[in-house]
Amino acid sequence: MKPIAIALTGASGMPYALTLLKELIKTQDRIYVMISQAASIVISMETDLDLGNDTKSIERNLSQYLGAKDGQIEVFSKNQWTAPVASGSNPPRAMVVCPCTMSTLSAIANGHGDNLMHRAADVVIKEQKKLILVPRETPYSAIHLENMLKLARLGVVIMDANPAFYQQPNSIQDLVDFVVARILDHLDVDHNLLPPWQG
Ligand SMILES: Cc1cc2nc3c(=O)[nH]c(=O)nc-3n(C[C@H](O)[C@H](O)[C@H](O)COP(=O)(O)O)c2cc1C
User: Fold this and answer.
1) Which residues line ligand 1 (CB under 6 A)?
2) For labeling, which of 151, 152, 157, 165 is most exposed (least CB within 10 Å)?
3) Which part of the chain is the Flavoprotein domain (predicted)?
4) What is the atom index within ligand 1 of the atom nearest the CA of 8?
């Protein structure tokens, strides 16, 4: 099975991204990861993870943090145009941008391809694979909403970081798990984060 690509951008919400990756390594042989410069800053502010600067250090530190096997996580740098995700002939099975900034959302909505993450999303859209964006901003301006509407009309799943409370969460991790469970459901990836709602 082709890998899933996960892109982390510099919005608040890194616990969502790290929980998503922790879940994916349980079932996926290989996961492609792209991390924007702003995301590295937000990771250092929101978590105890120190990624380092160069791509190889980021790959090693992230793999260690997640408990991933050797080669399970492959990190691509922002100008790595030779990466498989840059080509329409080898798109990932699906791509998730989590968390997704308004600036990356705009770049994707407007077809920019000036970094690998934007190009990969462009490829996923044109090859009609699944693209899930997990935006976080409040309030949304009309620009943000128009960009989201444009993407939703193309079939992109806009799944904002918006946990529910009917599961009676006991912790922040419970809230994070709620959002990640919905992302995994849309990826058709099995998980035990929370039971499906039975009514
Ligand atoms: C601590 C912190 C939190 C941020 N939170 C958000 C956010 O929730 N949503 C957002 O759109 N931008 C947020 N930003 C701003 C983005 O990081 C900034 O617009 C950046 O240029 C995005 O670049 P990227 O999309 O390449 O990651 C935040 C920045 C910092 C430092």
Assistant:
1) 9-12, 36, 38-39, 41-42, 45, 101-104, 136-137
2) 165
3) 3-187
4) 27
